[in-house]
Amino acid sequence: MMRVVEFRQCSVSSGDFALRELNFHVESGYITGLIGPNGAGKTTLIRSIMNMIRPKAGEVLLFGQSYREHEREIKRRIGFVYDEDFYYNHLSIREMKKIIASFYPTWNDAVFQQHLQQFGLPERKKIRDLSKGMKTKFALAAALAHEPELLIMDEPTSGLDPVFRREILSILSAYIRDGSKSVLFSTHISTDLERIADYILYMGRGRLQFCGTKEELLESYVLVKGPLALLQADRFPFQGLRQTALGFEALLSKQYVSADTFESPFIVEKPSLDDIIVYTQEGSRNGPAAS
């Protein structure tokens, strides 16, 4: 199985922010979710993958190749959907498409037209007259039209309605179906990733906190709920702990839980990706048994 993205002992700096000791890879043929709180390093990581920031140490490989010798070839194999608007707003969709298509020998206009019809985008409409959702649709149509092997999406569903978000997820699932294409999907909407992601990259404070399958991450923790009177914060290394007048809720590594660790009236549940992000970040700030 090919490693579509690989970081080898990389350290990357962007202003005062740095990513340190990144050593991981992204498997080809799957959807990989990139998660983490604001300031965790997700955008810096994506810029490193796109060669917009070069590593201070180590190496970044795409499709097993280095940007030093193969930048043009690598970038032609990548599609990118930004959260930000980077188009010429005075141009129409048709005019903007001609500019984008000129960079890609593999441009497939039939695929582009298919997505325009699917998304209800008229070619004569000016970019400046498109809503945020329509711009995202155009960006996705343009990215898919040159049939990239790796599609990178940076917060593409932010601010979009649930119907179109679900439509994007269906398109991505179909896109990787033949096993030859991959998606790296950065988003704050973790419920989207819980629906479609195969693997998760979890960034926190400039370091990679987790790299593996989504199920491995979700199965690594339990969410414990119970009455305050029975809370034993000094007994368990909770990743994060919240207390209210009604009781407590805490994230705990599954290695500390057996069948009889928590009995009634405690409730033990499988956490969501949001739970893991919130509580592990609280734990990194406040200590393993923060209250």
TrEMBL record:
Domain ABC transporter as annotated: residue spans: 2-230
PANTHER family documented for this protein: ABC TRANSPORTER ATP-BINDING COMPONENT, ABC TRANSPORTER ATP-BINDING PROTEIN ALBC-RELATED
InterPro entries documented for this protein: AAA+_ATPase, ABC_transporter-like_ATP-bd, ABC_transporter-like_CS, ABC_Transporter_VariousFunc, P-loop_NTPase
SMART domains hit by this protein: AAA
Record keywords: ATP-binding, Nucleotide-binding, Transport
GO molecular function: ATP binding; ATP hydrolysis activity
UniProt xrefs under CDD domains: ABC_DR_subfamily_A (cd03230)
Name the record gives this protein: ABC transporter ATP-binding protein
